[in-house]
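forwarding from the other thread:

> can someone predict this with zinc ion?

sure thing
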Amino acid sequence: MARYVTSGGKWLTAKDLVGDGGQRAAVFSVDESDDIAIKVFLDVNLRLHHRLKEMMAHEAALAWAMDQSVGWRAAWPIDVVRTTSDGKIVGYVMPLMNDCKSLFDVAEPDGATGTHANFNWQTLLNACFHLAETVRGFNDMGVIIGDLSPHNILVSASGIATIIDCDSVGFTSAGSPAKQWPAMHMTDDFSAPERLLHPSQPATVASDRFSLALVISQALMCNVSPFRATAEQVSTRGSLIENLKAGSPPLFGGSNTAERGCLACLPAPVEVLTRQALSESATNEADRPGPEEWVAALCEADISAQACPRDPWHAYCAPDTVCPFCGPGPVSGVAPRPVEQAPAPQPSMPEDRPATTWDAARAAVVLAAVAADIALVAVGAIVASGVWRVLAVVTGVTLLVLLACFVWADDQDPAPSWSGSVLVAWTLGQVLTFGTLAHILLA
Ligand SMILES: [Zn+2]
C-alpha cells in the first residue's frame, strides 16, 4: 500500500479505505495507529498546501475541535502528509472516528443496530445539541463550516457529533497579514437559498445558520426534509432545490395530516426555531436564529424528554403528553417512519381469551344437541313413514345447521346477542319436532 510521511518524519501506511472524503479525495486508516486516518487528495495544488498549513496553525480552532471534555468535535487536520520528505503536501492526518455512523444513518430507527443498538431519538437529540454547540464555538471564532450536511457529521453511540471533511471550512489565517480562506463547498440539499442562487459566493455565518437549522430539524423528523414536497403536494410545489432557492418549505405550507405528523416530532422550542429559520427568515439572512439559540432550545427539550412506553426508539418532550411517533390524534399513524405499527385489534377468538364456565356449559349443550338431532333423524327415519319420515329427517338436518349457526355466531361474539336467538330457535324446533314424533309414536 501507499506510504506517506508526516511533517515530523513519521511514515504512515495506508490500510483500508474508510471514506471518499469528497473533493476527489480518499480517507484511509493506517497500519501504524488505530486512532488516526489520513485523507489523501487526488488534485494536489499549492493552494491546498497553504490552506492545510494555515488550518493547523489555527490554535483556537484546533483546541475547539478537540475538546477534552467531549472528544473530537471536528476532524480537524492535525498534521500534513507528503509522499516524500521534501515533496508537496498531498493530504493530512486526522482523527479516525471509530464506531461512528453518519447523522443521516442514525436519524431513523433502522440505524439503531450494531454499535448503535441502543441509539434512540433522545440520543439523536443529544447529537443535535452537540452539533449546535460545535457550530456555535466555530462561528464565534470566525470559522465558517460551509458544507454542513448529515453526511458530513459522524455520531457516536452516545450521541457525540463530529464534523468531518472540515478542510473546506472558511477562516481567517492567524498570520500577518491575515488571509481569508473562503468556504466554497456545499451540499445542495442543505444549502441556504443565497448559496444556491449565487454558488460562486462563499458560505457565511448566516448560511451556516440556515444549514444548521435544516440539518437539525430534518434529523429530528427522521430525515424528512421540510423542503421536499409530499406526495399530495408534488403537483403544486417545486423540487427540493427549487423550494430551497425560494426559501419556501412545503412542510409549513399546507394543513394535511402528513405535515402535522412530521412537525409533531419536533419539540416545541425546536419547532419555533425551525419555523423561524427555514420559513419566516429563510430568505432574510439577518433574522436566522444563531447556534446558541439552538443550543438553548435543544437543552430545554432534552431536560423534559421522556421515553415512549411503547417503543424504546421513540421519545417526546414537554408539553407533549403522548408520543408523537405513536399518536393518537391528528398525528396518529402519519409520523415519519414509525417503528412497527401495533397490530390491529383482531376479532376475539375462543383461543384468544381464557376459558370460562360459559365455554364449558356451551360445549356440553352443543354435544347434547348434536346427539339429540342425530337421534331425531334416526328415530324419524325408522319409526315414522311417508311424509312424516321426510319431515323428521329434513327437520333434524335443519336443526343441525341451525346449531352450527349458533356455534359460529357465538364464536364471533361471545356476549349473548343474536347467537342467543339462534339457540332459542333451535330449542323450539327441537321440542316441536320431538313432540310431533311422540304424537306419531303414541297414535
Ligand atoms: Zn411512541
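The chain has 13 helices and 15 strands. thats all i got for now
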